[in-house]
């Protein structure tokens, strides 16, 4: 059907439901027709303009092909904020919100903390911590200049003046003069031969942010190797990782000289986070 004179909002949703989820269909229609969720519910029989219908069909076809919803609409929710998202960055995941919760826990009694988010991508972790702790100084580091452009856009959106964006690979070429209270990261951790890399959604995300093209642990080796020298006594290193990588990451933390090494489960009960602390100074 090409004539939008016959295509109402409700009929468009029904058409889209043949190939995609109902919620995705509703969100794409809101985006394509520039209407609110309330308007979609209150006025389901509004007829789409020809351009809206054409745009909606294209978006539905792309979503049916596995392209993430966030890339189609250009944003994703994270920790109560809407972040700009492009194919240059990962789509923020709920599991990463739990890593942020852990970070806020360990920083609760630390005044004016200095934080480094390694591999910041969209800036989701760095900006969330900066908003929750306006007294903090946050360094958001990424090797991808395209990803940093997205992080910069989100920084402007959220008004986080306490975040410095740094174009670098891990620790190369920058330092915090007084040391760091927290290093946090959700680095590329999928092994190169993992079939998930070609799965729905994931195959559209930047490969650089997904895999080290090796065993999935190279980023943790690099992060662990430089952590103790850069952390303040008592400072923390917290990371997200794959559900089966907890033991390997914990071993790297211990080899690096971190103490109080522990893991955390995500809300699904999977071991998805590991943390460790630089030893405090002796009394």
Automatic annotation (TrEMBL):
NCBIfam families, A to Z: hemK_fam, RF_mod_PrmC
Residues bound to S-adenosyl-L-methionine: 119-123, 142, 170, 186
UniProt-listed InterPro entries: DNA_methylase_N6_adenine_CS, HemK-like, N5-glutamine_MTase, PrmC_N, RF_methyltr_PrmC, SAM-dependent_MTases_sf, Small_mtfrase_dom
Catalytic activity: L-glutaminyl-[peptide chain release factor] + S-adenosyl-L-methionine = N(5)-methyl-L-glutaminyl-[peptide chain release factor] + S-adenosyl-L-homocysteine + H(+)
A GO MF term: peptide chain release factor N(5)-glutamine methyltransferase activity
UniProt KW keywords: Methyltransferase, S-adenosyl-L-methionine, Transferase
SUPFAM superfamilies: S-adenosyl-L-methionine-dependent methyltransferases
PANTHER family on file: HEMK METHYLTRANSFERASE (PTHR18895), MTRF1L RELEASE FACTOR GLUTAMINE METHYLTRANSFERASE (PTHR18895:SF74)
GO biological-process terms attached to the record: methylation
Family: Belongs to the protein N5-glutamine methyltransferase family. PrmC subfamily.
Protein species of origin: Fluviibacter phosphoraccumulans
Top-level taxon of origin: Bacteria
Protein name, entry field: Release factor glutamine methyltransferase
Pfam entry (one): MTS
EC code: 2.1.1.297
Entry binding sites for substrate: 186-189
PROSITE patterns: N6_MTASE
Job of this protein: Methylates the class 1 translation termination release factors RF1/PrfA and RF2/PrfB on the glutamine residue of the universally conserved GGQ motif.
């Amino acid at each position: 059907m090409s004539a939008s004179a016959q295509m109402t909002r409700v009929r468009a949703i029904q058409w889209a439901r043949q190939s995609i989820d109902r919620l995705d269909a509703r969100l794409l229609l809101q985006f394509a027709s520039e209407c609110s969720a309330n308007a979609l519910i209150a006025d389901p029989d509004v007829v789409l303009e020809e351009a809206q219908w054409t745009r909606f069909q294209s978006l539905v076809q792309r979503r049916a092909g596995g392209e993430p919803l966030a890339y189609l609409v250009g944003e994703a929710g994270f920790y109560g904020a809407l972040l700009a998202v492009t194919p240059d960055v990962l789509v923020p995941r709920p599991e990463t919100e739990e890593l942020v919760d852990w970070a806020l826990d360990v920083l609760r009694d630390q005044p004016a903390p200095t934080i480094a988010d390694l591999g910041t991508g969209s800036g989701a972790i760095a900006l969330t911590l900066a908003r929750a702790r306006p007294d903090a100084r946050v360094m958001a580091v990424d090797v991808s200049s395209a990803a940093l452009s997205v992080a910069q856009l989100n920084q402007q959106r959220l008004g986080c003046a306490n975040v410095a964006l740094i174009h670098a690979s891990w620790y190369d070429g920058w330092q915090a003069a007084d040391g760091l209270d927290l290093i946090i990261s959700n680095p590329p951790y999928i092994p190169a031969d993992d079939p998930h890399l070609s799965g729905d959604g994931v195959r559209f995300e930047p490969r650089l942010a997904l895999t080290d093209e090796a065993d999935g642990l190279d980023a943790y080796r690099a992060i662990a190797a430089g952590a103790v020298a850069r952390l303040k006594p008592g400072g923390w290193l917290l990371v997200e990782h794959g559900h089966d990588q907890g033991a390997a990451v914990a071993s790297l933390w211990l080899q690096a000289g971190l103490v109080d090494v522990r893991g955390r489960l995500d809300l699904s009960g999977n071991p998805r986070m590991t943390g460790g602390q630089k030893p405090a100074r002796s009394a």
